[in-house]
Design brief:
Keywords: Iron, Membrane, Metal-binding, Transmembrane, Transmembrane helix. It comes from Cuscuta epithymum. This protein has 402 residues and is α+β, with helices and mostly antiparallel strands. It folds into two domains: 155 residues, Uridine Diphospho-n-acetylenolpyruvylglucosamine Reductase, domain 2, CATH 3.30.43; 210 residues, Cytochrome p450 (Orthogonal Bundle). The protein contains 17 helices and seven strands. The strands form two sheets. Strands 1-2-7-4-3 form a five-stranded mixed beta sheet. Strands 5-6 form a two-stranded antiparallel sheet. The longest helix has 32 residues. The protein is globular.
Length: 402
């Protein structure tokens, strides 16, 4: 039975449901069994593991990691341990997984230069369950086929040919609706609406404000469950996130079926977007992506294209407010470009190329405040790095603050 989205909004999230009392008993049993398994595993081989703590069985150090992430200080989790263990490499346990964190450029180089030889892409179980099989959660040939099918719509060429005019139009509408005349504004809130609308228009050509708002509300319930303990029991963030994810997928599937019917009637599609492309284009073997996989991929792109962008834009506005001399230079550059345009004329790729100082400012914000905290990989075999052992199956994370 499909969950009612009104119920999810009404009951979503802060205090845990009383039914968790019984669940805690079950969880305690799991902790005991996991402890026994952990001790048994350690006896199999004497590992020279990195310094650090795996915390409590199953829970590990997830509680502190989740808390700091929600406070907007995920870098503190890494910095505290680097300082404590006097090592840029340390072990921890997050979301039920043993994780080795590699800080600094050397760690990044090691993971990214080894491709699929020693490590494979991996995402926390929360993301795997919320988004399902998609480009981000797949590996090997399946991931290659998905990436090839979607590559154009995620490329600079698509920005030039498909997105700039639409982006300018939506931006002007958004500024007029939410920013005009207000002296005080909660930037992050309105920017989230803006970036989500852009993603909906780019990938699915969805323009109805009511539909976008409905999806946006559900989507932010999903986001709360991305960084959480993967306990799918009533009252938890992850529980409500899974229900919201199911409702979003149901809505996206309805959009997909409507588009397919329009294409069947017209013989083609007037919408030049990712949804139509995936419906019309087979992979190298002549197979079409399943409806569920299309929905999963669009959902994860809504997440990737909206969440990181909204964080960066908000921080950009913050820094421009704190640094008036930088703001004045950005404003001057934008006014020069605006003065070269006719009334009602939208921006084009040449205009974007002229925004050199503005782009440098954005790049500096990204350098100082990375929107993505790190990247996860899974060890495909036993690995030795910097004198430490990383057992097969353990997860590794690089971070952008090392």
């Amino acid at each position: 039975m499909t969950p009612c989205w009104d119920e999810i909004l009404r009951r979503s999230p802060t205090l845990m449901d009383p039914t968790l009392t019984g669940v805690l008993i079950v969880l305690a049993s799991i902790l005991i069994l996991s402890t026994a398994r952990f001790i048994h595993t350690k006896k199999k081989r004497s590992w020279n593991l990195p310094p650090g703590s795996l915390g409590w069985p199953v829970i590990g150090e997830s509680v502190e990691f989740v808390r700091l992430s929600r406070e907007g200080r995920p870098e503190k989790f890494v910095a505290d341990r680097v300082s404590k263990y006097k090592s840029r490499i340390f072990k921890t346990s997050l979301m039920g997984e043993a994780v080795v964190v590699l800080s600094g450029q050397a760690g990044n180089k090691f993971l990214f230069s080894n491709g699929s030889k020693l490590v494979a892409s991996w995402w926390p179980v929360t993301i795997q369950k919320l988004f399902g099989v998609c480009l981000s959660t797949s590996n090997g040939e399946e991931a290659k086929q998905m990436k090839k099918l979607m590559s154009y719509f995620l490329s600079p060429a698509a920005i030039q040919q498909l997105y700039i005019t639409k982006m300018d139009f939506v931006t002007q509408q958004h500024l007029h609706t939410y920013w005009h005349g207000d002296k005080t504004l909660k930037v992050f809130h309105v920017v989230k609406l803006y970036t989500f609308e852009l993603a909906c228009r780019f990938f699915m050509s969805v323009e109805d404000p009511n539909q976008i708002n409905k999806l946006s509300v559900l989507f932010h319930i999903v986001l709360k469950g991305v960084i959480s303990l993967p306990l799918n029991v009533p009252g938890t963030r992850f529980y409500y996130a899974t229900r919201a994810s199911a409702l979003i997928k149901e809505e996206l599937l309805a959009i997909l079926k409507e588009r397919r019917e329009m294409m069947r009637q017209d013989g083609t599609s007037t919408a030049n977007d990712l949804l139509s492309h995936l419906l019309l284009t087979p992979d190298d073997d002549g197979n079409f992506m399943s409806d569920l996989h299309i929905v999963n991929n669009i959902l994860v792109l809504l997440f990737a294209g909206h969440d990181t962008s909204s964080v960066t834009i908000t921080l950009l506005v913050k820094k421009l407010g704190e640094l008036p001399h930088v703001y004045e230079k950005v404003l001057q550059e934008q006014r020069e470009i605006a003065s070269s345009k006719e009334v009602g004329q939208f921006l084009n790729w040449n205009d974007i190329q002229k925004m050199k100082y503005s782009w440098n400012v954005v790049s500096e914000v990204l350098r100082l405040y990375p929107a993505i905290s790190g990247t996860f990989r899974e060890a495909l075999e036993d690995i030795t790095y910097e004198g430490y052992d990383i057992p097969k199956g353990w997860k590794m994370e690089t971070n952008n603050w090392g």
